[in-house]
């Protein structure tokens, strides 16, 4: 697969690493609004910087990986679809639900994977598999904890669409994937406890969401923009026959026992370390989907549905009431 | 302290054990609506069965421990207060908030401890202490998980006032105690996932609550009437400098490593084993309050306030909206 | 059972607590070489100080608990046996193997329990039970780690008979109990790493022993007189179907997660906390043996055999060779 | 670095994977006594099969990785040294100590790394670093547990030089590396508990070793050829200020809590999974040594010294006595 990477920023570089490690995928081009950025990354990974139009027109390019700024996603998705490229797009599709829906419809005939990287994490995959095998009987309650080590720059927060669309979007997707039945209602509560500037920008930095599915399953999501001990990524699934807990991961299992107690390492610091393997598997899933003509693990409609839950959460937080997903 | 135990049922027997183990408290009388029950328990613990009126009139009796059915609490509290006895009363005061409030006012001049046993648990006490010492900086999010091993008999459920008043009442109290500032709003969602008969009786068996405090702290409570692995009692406090986790306790730390993995014991099965030490400390706190003329760790107004949150949760669940505590 | 406690020192007080908590055992007398010590302890536990001769002559006394200095054990055991008392004796019987053997023979017709308290620990008992049930198939290797928090006073060390007789004696007994077949050979190596004064007194403070049983099972014991994190008491049993690990115990399971990592409590500090329940069960086992006319969990011959292994270890350390138990 | 891989068996393939993943090392040739084996591996990794003489004569080849059968090591090492190649050699150098010493002397002027892969494991490296930083004060006792999941084929055992030279050699090296001072004495005890055929072949399958260093540090090593739960690789370092424990590693931290208890995954099954990262780092250390002209983390004299301890252990086991390393 000859793949063009659109976006040479931090997340673009993460994907470039996965591409370099994949035996069947070649980084055929790097595109960025800042040509120097594209050139630097291209040089580091033995590829070349190219123009966006060039890439869409080149029949040799099989696929594009869209990791540019959110505002460009819709345009690039639609152009890539027209050009007959397979697409792997970073989340979110867009900040606007209606526009996302329209795009999803327009690219419906193409292979369009969405980069919900956590679905590819070995531990969460194992959790999903065991739920499917009935390890805990019938799933009843799902609790997702997701905390970033540090808040992003304030400028980023302002353009992010807010915590629900930018950060909790991953957890909404994880909830949908694991609950495995329609989510019917959403309630959200949030506070600004980490940085008052985030509140002044109209956003929250700490939030809790409660959702209910068609059969009455309950799901909570807890987010914070700051956890001093690192990237806190845990999931607890409770059911009629037991409980599964995905625990935080550390670099090593070295334990120190001293006067002050028994000390193990802090969780991995951020998503690059925590989800390195997930990024590799995500690319491979995209490649296999393309090769086998099957659907990817997460597709563009999953992006739309996660955004819909984020929208519902936003309304709920403002109105202090249960929001039914069908309203949105 | 000469103490009369009112109520010779299961929980009465738990208290009798603590009384027997306390060097300064004597079980001076046992009272029960069923005289045989009182006699059996009195015989087992070297005490004697007596009439309720007798107990209130006897100037030798210093204190009463009210562990009879909920419907009797208000009457016994008020009579005990009139008779000048110190009181340790099982939760809830009553199922009706207004009546509970009225009673709390009437006995306000007496020593009246409420049996929120979990406040006396060594692990939760240590958690509270460390919060007070600033171990995690400023508290931001509190998550309480509380699951019973098995649902109570259906008849019990019907008269219990519902999951929020009967079971989650402990968690409301724990939340109030740990959050350490006024709770201003409550949202509740519940389902019947364990036993349809509970739903037919108008109650839920699985529930999630989200609360917010005056300064914006967020608190979730998750309850289930059934956890096949035992009594699931965990608390996670998250703050600006870290996280404290009160984990489930087991009888031993023996670990088996075999083909299927690394296996440690299931959590203790039920409250008798899990909170045995808490019951002993609760009685001692009551005794020390009486001896030193100080307030007990949990008093009757704590019982009123926990019931108020339960009432708010009930309204929220029915109306699908945030309920402000001041409404109740 | 009317029991006289001989020895009102630290370990005597531990036993007095267990006696006070046992519903069927009465502390009928306290004896000590220092009458004031006996009187203080007797007063604290509602008993009375008496003379040693008095105790042996009093037909009302059913049993004696010998917790006096090691040098007195043999005399008291033999007099107690003559007087028809049941005996629970602290370890070691004596520092001299031949004398211990002779005494064991002389009291062979009496109930004589030896205070190997660890056999009564709930966790080690569960380990023993699971070995018996074949949980790990055939036992192949046993590894015992046993470290004190701090060295005893130097004067104590000088009169203790050395690390193998004083400290490792418990581990020799544990090894015999768990290996469940004759130990045929012993090798010992030791160093003085904690306090040079212990070395100057002719003893070691750090030691490792390797033993082999008749069928070839291997057992290691590792001792240190000092572990800054507390009382380190672990056992690992490895077999054809898996491994059992008895882990250190802590007061609570409270966990702190912060910048520096994930911190759980240090192990319990010393034997009083770690083995409190074991001491209670040991007394109850003694009482039940007496009442039912059965053998106690650890008897006087177990004391002789553990001392024999200590003797073999001492020879091995001096001679740098495998010592066969039959040599000793 | 242009590298020739000598030996296309199981371990050769492990190294080929690391070479493929290293950006600066090229697999320039594959050599094997069975030309088809060399060709298959060469094809899989985009290299070519070549003759051994060819490789030594080719001035383009910078280095050889010797992963052929033990009997060939000495010849290849000496020829590679003569040809001016850098060498990374699998352990052991040879089964014969004198021959190994002679070879080590002959290649002393060349870069000759020995493949003690465990020194490169991230967890053991972190342990080594923390010892160096004084995390546990002065090291006093080291305990190494090392168990294979299953015994190798009997034919392999027969030619392996025995458990001490073939399996425990890694632990002897780890002990030398971590103890960081001369080991002066060795005692070994072993049994045949896993498979009687191993005993009939004159070897043991379960063994324990005790060593002492110049300053009196004590070290135990425990080996078994079979652990049903997987590859058991643990190290415990105990010192004046605490303890460090390198624990077994699992694929994920997913935990199941059910009726039977709290279950985490079994340790990784074998060395390929457990030490995958160590193999990558080992190759990189070899490359960096070559590039920078510095000594590798483990060199040929480390191989000689580990073999010397194995020899001492063999003598000790046969003679039942402490063997001083200077004797060997």
UniProtKB/TrEMBL annotation, chains A, B, C, D:
<dbReference type="InterPro" id="IPR055170">
    <property type="entry name" value="GFO_IDH_MocA-like_dom"/>
</dbReference>
<dbReference type="Pfam" id="PF22725">
    <property type="entry name" value="GFO_IDH_MocA_C3"/>
</dbReference>
<dbReference type="Pfam" id="PF01408">
    <property type="entry name" value="GFO_IDH_MocA"/>
</dbReference>
<feature type="domain" description="Gfo/Idh/MocA-like oxidoreductase N-terminal">
    <location>
        <begin position="2"/>
        <end position="111"/>
    </location>
</feature>
<dbReference type="InterPro" id="IPR036291">
    <property type="entry name" value="NAD(P)-bd_dom_sf"/>
</dbReference>
<keyword id="KW-0560">Oxidoreductase</keyword>
<feature type="domain" description="GFO/IDH/MocA-like oxidoreductase">
    <location>
        <begin position="125"/>
        <end position="244"/>
    </location>
</feature>
<comment type="similarity">
    <text>Belongs to the Gfo/Idh/MocA family.</text>
</comment>
<protein>
    <submittedName>
        <fullName>Inositol 2-dehydrogenase</fullName>
    </submittedName>
</protein>
<dbReference type="InterPro" id="IPR000683">
    <property type="entry name" value="Gfo/Idh/MocA-like_OxRdtase_N"/>
</dbReference>
<dbReference type="InterPro" id="IPR030827">
    <property type="entry name" value="Myo_inos_IolG"/>
</dbReference>
């Amino acid at each position: 697969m000859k793949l063009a990477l659109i976006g040479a920023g931090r997340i673009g570089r993460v994907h470039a690493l996965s591409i370099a490690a994949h035996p069947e995928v070649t980084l055929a081009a790097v595109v960025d609004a800042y040509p120097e950025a594209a050139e630097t990354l291209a040089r580091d990974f033995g590829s070349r910087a190219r123009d966006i139009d060039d890439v869409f027109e080149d029949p040799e390019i099989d696929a594009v990986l869209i990791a540019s700024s959110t505002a460009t996603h819709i345009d690039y998705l639609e152009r890539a679809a027209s050009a007959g490229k397979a697409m792997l797009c970073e989340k979110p599709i867009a900040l606007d639900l209606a526009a996302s829906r329209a795009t999803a419809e327009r690219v419906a005939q193409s292979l369009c994977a969405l980069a919900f990287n956590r679905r590819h994490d070995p531990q969460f995959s194992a959790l999903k598999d065991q739920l499917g095998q009935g390890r805990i009987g019938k799933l009843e309650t799902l609790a997702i904890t997701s905390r970033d080590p540090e808040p992003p720059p304030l400028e980023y927060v302002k353009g992010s669409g807010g915590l629900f669309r930018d950060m909790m979007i991953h957890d909404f997707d994880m909830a949908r994937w694991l609950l495995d039945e329609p989510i019917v209602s959403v309630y959200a509560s949030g506070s600004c406890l980490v940085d008052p500037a985030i509140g002044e920008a109209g956003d929250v930095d700490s939030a809790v969401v409660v959702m209910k599915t068609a059969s009455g399953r309950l799901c909570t999501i807890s987010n914070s923009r700051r956890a001093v001990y690192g990237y806190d990524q845990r999931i607890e699934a409770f059911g009629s026959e037991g409980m599964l807990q995905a625990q935080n991961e550390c670099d090593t299992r070295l334990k120190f026992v001293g006067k002050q107690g028994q000390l193990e390492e802090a969780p991995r610091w951020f998503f690059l370390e925590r989800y390195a393997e997930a990024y590799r598997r995500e690319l491979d899933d995209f490649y296999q989907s393309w090769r086998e003509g099957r659907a990817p693990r997460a597709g563009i409609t999953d992006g739309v549905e996660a955004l819909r839950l984020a929208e519902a959460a936003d309304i709920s937080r403002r109105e202090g009431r249960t929001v039914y997903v069908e309203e949105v």
